[in-house]
């Protein structure tokens, strides 16, 4: 058929594209409705510190958005974050996350037997660059002063591509209210070492891509070793993401990366799962 009538072939292709477009539009409408009706939730994944002697100690949580839709089922952030990003919805998602974290502060604090815990949220470039980001954050800290002690913002290197000086200045202002920064997915982006010097960072998150084959791939091992040494030299902490096995954990701790996050230690779960009382 395609041979005799190229037109039909093209029309078929276009229908395919039309269908994909419609699917995306449906998902987008569903996402907008989920935001309006407060149907997005947070799961919390624990972060642990291994100090050599004694058991690992839970030092914090990373908050991760979850969206269950009746029509589409569980939609991965890998699908809806880019959708929100390309449709100007990221500021709204940031509000959803901040509102939920603030509502969870009491319950979060009951998960720890110390007061140095961290709750980390992910902040994308468009969120951080929103004109009201800083004023909103200051307002929230005035309402909930514990944020200044416990909140950490995870940014990725993509945040830094444009206007590094402006972003560095903004990050310094945010740091001055007590809120700290982690550099997420470190090593996968457009890293330039100058960022590590210019930006007020508390810690580097070693991307799970380097952890996955750490025990079998000598390049990954060399990269992780180097990142840890670099962070040490700069006075930054390191935390490894995507730790799925005991062997990975042991190797990372032996290499000097004492903070760990991953399925081996705990999956992202609703906060009720982690409460002690
Ligand atoms: P991320 O910030 O790097 O988060 C880590 C991702 O790795 C999470 O996926 C987490 O569930 C997953 N993970 C944790 N431990 C393991 C492990 O041991 N093995 C494997 N294979 N995966 C592990 P998730 O929740 O699907 O989120 C994906 C990405 O979506 C996040 O990557 C983050 O970039 C983005 N995201 C999630 N929530 C938010 C949010 O509230 N705001 C923004 N801006 N982005 C978010
Ligand atoms: Mg993250
Ligand atoms: Mg990451
Ligand atoms: Mg990631």
From TrEMBL:
Residues 24-277 form the EAL domain. It comes from the Bacteria. This is Signaling protein with a periplasmic amino acid-binding domain, GGDEF and EAL domains. The chain holds residues 572 to 848 of 848 of the full protein.
């Amino acid at each position: 058929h395609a041979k005799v009538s190229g037109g039909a072939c093209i029309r078929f292709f276009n229908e395919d594209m039309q269908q994909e477009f419609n699917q995306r539009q449906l998902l987008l409408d569903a996402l907008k409705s989920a935001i309006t009706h407060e149907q997005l939730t947070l799961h919390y994944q624990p972060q642990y510190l291994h100090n050599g002697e004694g058991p690992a100690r839970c030092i914090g949580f990373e908050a991760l958005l979850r969206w269950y839709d009746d029509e589409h089922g569980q939609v991965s952030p890998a699908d809806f974050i880019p959708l929100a990003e390309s449709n100007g919805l990221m500021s709204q998602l940031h509000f959803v996350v901040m509102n939920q974290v603030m509502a969870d502060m009491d319950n979060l604090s009951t998960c720890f037997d110390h007061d140095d815990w961290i709750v980390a949220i992910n902040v994308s470039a468009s969120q951080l660059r929103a004109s009201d980001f800083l004023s909103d954050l200051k307002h929230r800290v005035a309402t909930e002063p514990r944020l200044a002690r416990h909140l950490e913002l995870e940014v990725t290197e993509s945040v830094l591509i444009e206007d590094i000086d402006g972003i560095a200045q903004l990050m310094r202002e945010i740091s001055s209210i007590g809120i700290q920064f982690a550099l997420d997915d470190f090593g996968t982006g457009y890293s330039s070492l100058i960022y590590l010097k210019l930006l007020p960072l508390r810690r580097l998150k070693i991307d799970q891509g380097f952890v996955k084959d750490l025990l079998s791939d000598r390049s990954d091992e060399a990269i992780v070793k180097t990142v840890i040494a670099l962070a040490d030299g700069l006075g930054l902490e390191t935390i490894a993401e995507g730790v799925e096995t005991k062997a990975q954990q042991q190797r990372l701790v032996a290499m000097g990366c004492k903070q760990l996050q991953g399925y081996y230690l705990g999956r992202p779960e609703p906060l009720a799962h982690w409460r002690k009382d």
